[in-house]
Design a protein that fits this description.
InterPro entries: DUF1191. It is built from 6 helices and 14 strands. The chain has about 290 residues and is an alpha+beta fold. The strands form 3 sheets. Strands 1, 2, 6, 7, 8, 11, 12 and 14 form an 8-stranded antiparallel beta sheet that branches. A 4-stranded antiparallel beta sheet has the order 3-4-10-13, with no helix packed on it. The termini are far apart. The structure holds 2-acetamido-2-deoxy-beta-D-glucopyranose (8 copies). The site of one 2-acetamido-2-deoxy-beta-D-glucopyranose (NAG) has 5 residues, from loops.
Length: about 290
């Protein structure tokens, strides 16, 4: 029971630990899993028809669809499927008669499989890959698509920009071997590409503002501490001063009592507080006399 809880805790926190380096879930293995699964599900497909593939329940949230295309008509007309507008004049290579395209929308799994350092996704990661159509499992290799005319357009239906309305949106493309390419968005929700892969839209983190607020907070805290310390210091000084004053008063009172006693002995009627003054008076008189 305890062990199970530990394992579940580890599983829950491990994606966070791996953030910034390499994601715990391998994108390549996801791609090949989806590819294999889609090919198994697609039995005798009609060319040109899109098929939705429902993945196993533990991948719930990822949308996958697959379509078989004729290279000739693809070159002549292009296709508009899912989030992708593929214009005419895209050349599949090697030269095959038919090929398959698998589309993915990772939805809420986007940041599980992909992450752009210092950026936040504001759209799901979507992707497409082209494969050989003779789906004899072992032969499900990718084929390349060479764009000879206009670029492929990726249309994101819902770009969610919450905190920073003015933030610069950037298109990002994830290629092979962890390649990450940035480009400008068009109309804030369209990206252009000359290759297949995974795509999304990101906004940069606003690090500077955060550190500014943090610094500002520290200033306030420091100021408060300073004020409290100052008040304490003043209190201490006042208390010490009062104590000293009381002590001094007492001493002076005692001394004056003593000197009064002395004075009364010397001068008799005089009730002057200081004996010293009285004692110096004759000296002054003497100096004035000559
Ligand atoms: C395939 O899935 C998409 C989105 O999940 C949905 O809009 C579409 O109607 C589905 N198509 C079919 C043929 O089931
Ligand atoms: C989901 O289950 C399949 C087997 O049915 C397994 O291969 C895959 O790794 C699992 N995926 C996750 C994310 O747990
Ligand atoms: C795809 O959409 C564009 C513009 O929305 C349109 O011009 C083009 O004819 C469409 N292509 C196909 C094959 O439907
Ligand atoms: C995504 O959402 C589905 C439900 O819509 C949920 O079952 C799944 O666990 C979620 N995946 C992640 C990675 O949060
Ligand atoms: C991310 O931001 C931190 C601090 O703002 C910086 O040190 C780091 O180099 C950045 N990473 C990348 C990959 O730009
Ligand atoms: C599938 O097509 C590729 C290239 O067109 C070819 O090399 C391979 O032998 C084919 N495989 C099968 C099982 O037909
Ligand atoms: C947004 O950016 C524009 C120019 O890029 C600027 O004029 C405007 O003041 C900015 N708005 C906010 C709220 O930052
Ligand atoms: C992207 O946009 C920025 C500012 O909006 C501009 O300076 C830059 O030249 C653009 N890059 C390209 C490749 O269009």
């Amino acid at each position: 029971m305890f062990l199970k809880a530990m394992v579940m805790f580890y599983v829950a926190i491990s994606p966070c630990i791996c953030q910034g380096e390499k994601n715990i879930y391998e994108t390549d293995s996801l791609d090949s899993f989806i590819r294999d699964y889609s090919f198994k599900k697609m039995v005798q497909p009609r060319t040109g028809t899109m098929y939705n593939v429902s993945l196993p329940a533990n991948f719930s949230g990822i949308d996958v669809s697959i379509v078989r295309l004729r290279s000739g008509s693809f070159w002549k007309r292009g296709v508009n499927h899912s989030f992708f507008k593929m214009p005419p004049r895209i050349l599949p290579w090697p030269n095959v008669i038919r090929f398959d395209i698998v589309y993915q929308n990772l939805g809420n799994w986007s940041s599980t499989y992909f992450n752009v350092p210092n950026h936040t996704f504001v759209a799901p990661v979507v992707g497409f890959s082209a494969y050989y159509a003779n789906s004899s499992e072992a032969e499900n290799e990718k084929i390349s698509l060479t764009v000879m005319g206009d670029p492929i357009q990726v249309h994101f239906p819902n770009v969610e920009v919450q905190e920073s309305r003015n933030a610069t949106l950037k298109c990002v493309r994830f290629g092979n071997d962890g390649l990450v390419e940035f480009s400008n968005t068009s109309n804030r929700n369209i990206c252009f590409s000359h290759s297949q892969g995974h795509f999304s839209i990101v906004v940069p983190h606003q690090e500077r503002k955060k550190t500014k607020t943090r610094r500002w907070k520290w200033w306030v805290i420091g100021f408060a501490i300073g004020v409290v310390a100052l008040v304490l210091l003043v209190l201490i000084v006042v208390i010490v001063y009062k104590v000293l004053k009381t002590n001094m008063k007492r001493k002076m009172e005692k001394e004056s009592e003593r000197s009064e006693a002395l004075g009364s002995i010397w001068i008799g009627v005089s009730k002057m507080p200081s004996g010293a003054y009285i004692r110096t008076e004759p000296v002054l008189e003497h100096s004035f006399v000559p």
